[in-house]
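Good morning,

Both structures are done.
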Amino acid sequence: MVKIEIDKEACVGCASCVEDCPNDVYEMDDDWKTKVVKEEDCMACLSCHEICPAQAMEHKDIHVAKRLYIDRDVNDVISKIV
């Protein structure tokens, strides 16, 4: 299982990871910092890691052969074009 650590001091509270995660692994806490709520649902796509402007998260116990970054806005644009 993937182990996710959030650096609360580095987190800027933008909620990009919350919005971008396809499995809803994250929520914002009362201090408007990211918290992991469903770590077991993480599929290690690293979308959150790629989109985090502060690079405030670390994923452990994964072996990534290919980054599977998901940009929902780009996917929406592509689907309209095709």
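Second structure follows.
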Amino acid sequence: MTQQLWTALILAGQRPGIDPLAAQFNQQWKALIPIAGESMLSRVAKSLLALSESSRKGDSIKRPPIGRIIIMAQEPEALLTGDCAWLAKDSRITTAISGQGIATSIMTLIDQKKITWPLLVTTADHPLLTPEIITEFLMKTPDKDLSVGVVNRTTILKHYPENRRTWLKFSDEAYSGANLFGMRNEKVKSALHQWSMIEQDRKKAWQLIRHFGLCLAIRAVTRTISFEKALTQVGHTLGLTIQPVVLAQAEAGIDVDKLSDYKLAEQILKSRSRP
């Protein structure tokens, strides 16, 4: 694998209005919720920076390098406070203002030439993200236009049987997203466009079914197609190549959307810090 410099984009925004989880911790911004003594955004940024070129000097482990990080949110400067103040002082980190939706905002960055390829996209509410998980994803990311990180249900429930997630069910397995996306080139704009349609009106999901084809929709619902084959067919329709990247660590599939997620993630982080 060629040692390309990846650009990492951290999605740190939130839906309009008061975020219910942030409110429970007296925070305006979800990304700044403290967990095991450190905000979620700070944890994610540190894990990504561990793979930056300057941090990898003398590292005997072959890791795909990350060149710079972009933090995108409605008010990104408002996030650079408290234990995240250091982010404003690191030359490898810049910010970007998000628009009406995630997909549209990423497409704007692409159109404005503010992104260099390849691009790694993750989220600020993934405090369990580690350099090892990121490395595994990047090392397994094939030479496809779009790669999607997932963890299968067997792996997650083996380690955390009480954890509740949203499962994508296919003939081979059920999967949960890992909030990791690898984008190689501008071909991903067609996928981002479809993503923006879902963001604009989730009630019009039937339009997406019509776009991708009724046959594929039926096979997905009846679980007579594997996840990889389904993504391959979707990619063919969109004019790009898509590949799932199944990650080995259960924690890769656990982000923090609700209080039960937070309690589990905090428990895992505290166990990591024990001798």
